[in-house]
Specification:
By secondary structure, the protein is an all-beta fold. Helix content is about 0%, strand content about 55%. It contains no helices and eleven strands. The strands form two sheets. Strands 2, 4, 5, 6, 9, 10 and 11 form a seven-stranded mixed β-sheet that branches. The protein has a four-stranded antiparallel β-sheet with strand order 1-3-8-7, with no helix packed on it. It is globular, with a radius of gyration of 13 Å.
């Protein structure tokens, strides 16, 4: 079955960096766009970044443009999110997502906490 396992979260000071990973299995990874979402306490889940199946195109939320970079390694079935210049408002649980035949699949999430 489809599995997405996020890792790399943690506690970092404002201005710092973190790199998240999402290891995928149970589907043909190289055929699907991948997306990172996040959800802060008391807020709705929001899209952070998307990358196309071949990695040729990316899209970012305005709030993270210029600070976050999404990449993927289709040989390793893994998608990454490099986060620089982190701010306290980036504090959230970060989720990896894939949509397959109108079904959305989610990982368990990884907590990112940015202290001021």
């Amino acid at each position: 079955q489809v599995q997405l396992v996020e890792s790399g979260g943690g506690l970092v000071q404002s201005g710092g960096s973190l790199s998240l990973s999402c290891a995928a299995s149970g589907f043909i990874f190289r055929r699907y766009d991948m997306t990172w979402y996040r959800q802060a306490p008391g807020k709705e889940r929001e899209l952070v970044a998307t990358i196309t199946s071949a990695g040729s195109s990316t899209n970012y939320a305005d709030s993270v443009k210029g600070r976050f970079t999404i990449t993927r390694d289709n040989a390793k079935n893994t998608v990454y999110l490099l986060m620089n210049s982190l701010r306290p408002e980036d504090t959230a649980v970060y989720y990896c997502n894939v949509r397959i035949l109108m079904q959305y699949y989610w990982g368990q999430g990884t907590q990112v906490t940015v202290s001021s």
